[in-house]
Amino acid sequence: MEHHRYKKGEIIVREGEKASAFTVIREGSAKAYRITPDGREQILYIFPVNDYFGARFLFTEERVPYTVEALEPTTVCTLSKTNFENLLAEHSQVAIEIIEAMANRMSRLENAMQSMGGRNADMRIASLLLEFKESYGHYNGNFLEITLPLSREGLANYLGIARETLSRKLTQFEEDGIILAVGNRVIRILDLAKLTDLSYLVD
């Protein structure tokens, strides 16, 4: 197993490369994105601590279909294909956990696709905050706070909405007593039940 450190903005793997290792985020976080035909960055996925990528591409000829970039100072652990195969062969429980994690990720991606296709902006934002709560939420005294891994522009990109729409909706959430913005990167959840209800509403 090898360890690698990346500065914020450094590329961990580039779109079109052949994956050579199974990679686990040990510290920090990273984003997976593609560049659209018109030159825009389209964020596909956020990798928090203990998330991983690369397993699927070790056993196919498929090249990595996205670029992975560190969102902050990030440390990763990598296993070569041979070492990864040995790990799976010797520790069946690890294989089961990876399969479960892949199934959970697929479910999250399917939910995200549903969110982009059939949900209004309120629902998309609420769903994303609930998702981020699991990986980036922490209690500050009695308050549940989420340290956002993306800027407001990055969040809007990830959600597929205009930045102005995101700002307007977050302000509305504040006025409704659901959240409180603490600076640019921290969201305090004031009413988790209302936020959860919003994630299921449709137009």
Map the helices and strands.
Blueprint: E1 2-6, E2 11-13, E3 21-27, E4 30-35, E5 41-47, E6 52-53, H1 55-58, E7 67-70, E8 74-80, H2 81-90, H3 92-118, H4 121-136, E9 137-140, E10 143-147, H5 152-159, H6 163-175, E11 179-182, E12 186-189, H7 192-198
Antiparallel strand pairs: 1-8, 2-7, 3-6, 3-8, 4-5, 4-7, 9-10, 10-12, 11-12
Helix pairs in contact: 2-3, 5-6
Give a verbal description of the structure.
The protein is α+β, with helices and mostly antiparallel strands. The protein has 2 domains: 2-115, Jelly Rolls, CATH 2.60.120.10; 120-198, Orthogonal Bundle (Arc Repressor Mutant, subunit A), CATH 1.10.10. The protein contains 7 helices and 12 strands. It has helices at 55-58, 81-90, 92-118, 121-136, 152-159, 163-175, 192-198; strands spanning 2-6, 11-13, 21-27, 30-35, 41-47, 52-53, 67-70, 74-80, 137-140, 143-147, 179-182, 186-189. The strands form 3 sheets. The protein has a 4-stranded antiparallel β-sheet. α2 packs across α3 and α5 packs across α6 (163-175). The longest helix is centred in the middle third of the chain and has 27 residues, at 92-118. It is globular. Keywords: DNA-binding, Transcription, Transcription regulation. GO terms for molecular function: DNA binding; DNA-binding transcription factor activity. Residues 1-105 form the Cyclic nucleotide-binding domain. InterPro entries: cNMP-bd_dom, cNMP-bd_dom_sf, Env_Response_Regulators, HTH_CRP, RmlC-like_jellyroll, Tscrpt_reg_HTH_Crp-type_CS, WH_DNA-bd_sf. Residues 119-193 form the HTH crp-type domain.
